[in-house]
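stage 2 :: seqdesign
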C-alpha cells in the first residue's frame, strides 16, 4: 500500500464510519498530508466520487502504512509512544469537532439514553481513541468461585502502577499541562512522550448535583462501554454526601449504566486520586449478581430495603424508589464509618490523626429501584502489612499487589501483562516436573504452584490452561477477602452487625 492509497482508504474509512461526510474528504486528506509532512502528487483528488467506497481495509493496516513511512523518512522515531502520538494526530484530522459530537449526542438522547451512548461509544472506537485492535489482544475469562463467576482480565495495553507511586503523585506539585489525564483540557492536546495524545478524545458535558461534569470512555475498555465521568475541575477525590447525589443524578440520566466511585484514600482508592471522577459502563459485574447474605434495617429508614451482600468484601446494599432517601442514609452510614473503630476486627478509624476509613460506592438501577452498594474500606498499614492490612497480603502479591479499586471491588480482576508470559513458563515447568523454586523468573509463583499440584493430580497438557485460569480466579477471590474489613466468620459477622447497630 502506498501513502497515497493509504490516505484514500482512510477517507473511505472516515466516510463509512461517519467520522466525516463525503464533502469533507478533500479537506481531511489535505490535513493528513500536512501531518505526514508530504506534498500530494499533482493528480491526487480524493473527492468522494473518486474513492472506492467498497474498500474495507482494516484501520490498523492503513495507519501502520502511514506510520512506517513516517518512521522511514525519520519524521518520527520507531518507539511505540512516538507512533501512538503520531497516529492519534492523523486520526484527529477525521474526528468531528467536540461541539458537533455534543450536538449529535443530544439528538440521539431524544431518541433514548441508549441511542446516545451507543453513538458516543461507536465514535470513540471508530476515531481510534479506543484502539480496538489492541484491546482485542487482552485475555479475559470467567472464573467460578464461591461468590459466583468472577471476571479475570490480563491487560496488555496499560502499564502496572505501583501503589506508592500513586500516593506520591497525590502530594506532587501539579505544574504540568494538562494537570492530569482526567482534566478536560486534554481535549485536542497533542501529547508528549510521557502524556498520551488526545486529538481524538471527546467529552460530553453533564450536570451532576448542579455541578459541571463530563463523560468520556476509557481508552483501555476493561469491560463493555467502560466510561469515565469526571469533574470539570481538577480537585482531589472525595467521598461525601454530594458524591451519592451525583451518582444518583447520573443514574437518572443513564439508567442503563452502572456507576461507581473509587474511595478517596491511598491503597484502597484507584490509580488517580488527584482528580475527582467516577467509572461506569454497560456491564453486569459479578457483584451485581451477588445476593443478600443478611437483611438489615436502619432506624428511621425502614422504607429502604437494606442488606449485607454475599461478597468477599464488606458491602451494605440499599434499595429504594426514592434516590434522595438513599442519599440521606448513605451519608449517615458514611459519617458513622469514618469515625468507627472495632479493635477486635483490627479496624482503627485513625492513627496519629491520619484517617483510615472510607467507602467505595457503586450505584445502579434494579427492577425500577435505585440501588447503592457501600463497600467499607480501611487503609491502615502495619509493620507486618506495610501495603495494608485490608489489602492483598504478601503471599498473593505474585498475582496481584496493586490497589484494589472500584473495578476489582465489583469482581473484575485487572491483572498485569507480565503474568501472561510467567504463566506460560509456569505451565511448562509444572508439566515437565521442574522445581519452580529454582527458576528465578517464576520463583514467586512456586508455593502456589506446589499447592496446585498437591490439590490436582490430574494435570495434563490438555487441561492445564483451564486449571491455571481457575486457580487465578481463586487467588482473586482470596485477594478480595483480604480487603474485606469484616471477615465472613463469626467474629466478622458480629462486628458487621455492631457497626450497623451503631449507625
Ligand atoms: Zn485533572
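stage 2 :: out
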Amino acid at each position: 500500500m502506498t501513502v497515497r492509497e493509504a490516505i484514500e482508504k482512510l477517507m473511505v474509512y472516515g466516510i463509512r464510519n461517519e467520522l466525516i461526510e463525503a464533502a469533507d474528504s478533500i479537506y481531511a486528506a489535505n490535513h493528513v498530508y500536512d501531518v505526514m509532512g508530504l506534498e500530494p502528487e499533482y493528480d491526487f483528488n480524493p473527492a468522494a466520487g473518486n474513492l472506492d467506497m467498497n474498500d474495507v481495509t482494516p484501520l490498523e493496516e492503513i495507519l501502520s502504512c502511514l506510520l512506517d513511512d513516517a518512521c522511514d523518512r525519520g519524521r518520527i522515531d520507531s518507539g511505540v509512544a512516538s507512533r501512538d502520538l503520531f497516529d492519534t494526530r492523523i486520526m484527529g484530522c477525521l474526528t468531528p469537532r467536540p461541539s458537533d459530537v455534543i450536538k449529535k449526542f443530544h439528538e440521539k438522547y431524544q431518541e433514548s439514553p441508549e441511542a446516545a451512548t451507543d453513538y458516543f461509544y461507536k465514535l470513540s472506537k471508530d476515531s481510534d481513541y479506543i484502539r480496538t485492535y489492541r484491546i482485542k489482544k487482552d485475555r479475559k475469562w470467567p472464573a467460578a468461585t464461591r461468590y459466583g463467576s468472577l471476571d479475570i482480565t490480563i491487560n496488555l495495553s496499560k502499564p502496572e502502577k505501583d501503589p506508592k507511586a500513586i500516593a506520591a503523585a497525590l502530594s506532587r506539585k501539579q505544574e504540568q499541562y494538562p494537570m492530569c489525564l482526567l482534566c478536560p483540557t486534554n481535549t485536542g492536546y497533542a501529547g508528549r512522550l510521557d502524556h498520551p495524545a488526545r486529538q481524538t478524545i471527546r467529552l460530553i458535558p453533564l450536570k451532576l448535583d448542579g455541578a459541571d461534569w463530563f463523560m468520556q470512555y476509557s481508552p483501555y475498555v476493561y469491560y463493555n462501554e467502560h466510561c469515565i465521568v469526571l469533574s470539570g475541575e481538577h480537585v482531589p477525590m472525595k467521598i461525601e454526601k454530594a458524591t451519592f447525589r451525583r451518582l444518583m443524578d447520573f443514574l437518572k440520566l443513564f439508567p442503563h449504566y452502572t456507576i461507581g466511585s473509587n474511595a478517596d484514600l491511598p491503597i484502597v482508592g484507584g490509580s488517580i486520586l488527584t482528580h475527582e471522577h467516577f467509572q461506569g459502563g454497560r456491564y453486569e459485574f459479578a457483584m451485581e449478581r451477588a445476593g443478600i447474605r443478611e437483611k438489615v434495617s436502619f432506624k428511621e429508614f425502614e422504607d429502604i430495603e437494606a442488606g449485607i451482600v454475599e461478597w468477599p468484601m464488606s458491602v451494605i446494599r440499599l434499595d429504594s424508589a426514592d434516590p434522595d432517601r438513599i442519599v440521606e442514609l448513605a451519608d449517615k452510614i458514611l459519617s458513622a464509618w469514618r469515625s468507627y473503630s472495632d479493635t477486635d476486627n483490627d479496624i482503627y478509624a485513625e492513627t496519629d490523626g491520619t484517617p483510615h476509613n472510607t467507602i467505595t460506592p457503586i450505584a445502579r438501577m434494579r427492577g425500577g429501584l435505585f440501588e447503592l452498594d457501600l463497600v467499607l474500606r480501611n487503609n491502615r498499614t502495619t509493620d507486618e502489612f506495610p501495603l495494608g492490612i485490608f489489602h492483598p497480603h504478601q503471599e498473593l502479591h505474585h498475582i496481584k499487589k496493586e490497589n484494589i479499586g472500584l473495578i476489582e471491588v465489583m469482581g473484575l480482576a485487572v491483572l498485569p501483562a507480565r503474568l501472561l508470559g510467567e504463566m506460560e513458563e509456569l505451565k511448562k515447568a509444572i508439566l515437565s516436573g521442574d522445581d519452580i523454586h529454582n527458576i528465578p523468573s517464576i520463583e514467586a509463583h512456586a508455593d502456589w504452584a506446589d499447592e496446585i499440584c498437591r490439590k490436582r493430580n490430574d494435570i495434563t497438557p490438555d487441561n492445564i490452561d483451564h486449571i491455571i485460569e481457575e486457580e487465578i480466579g481463586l487467588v482473586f477471590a482470596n485477594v478480595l477477602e483480604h480487603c474485606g474489613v469484616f471477615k465472613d466468620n463469626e467474629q466478622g459477622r458480629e462486628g458487621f452487625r455492631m457497626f450497623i447497630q451503631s449507625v
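stage 3 :: structure notes
- The chain is about 35% helix and 15% strand.
- The mean pLDDT is 95.
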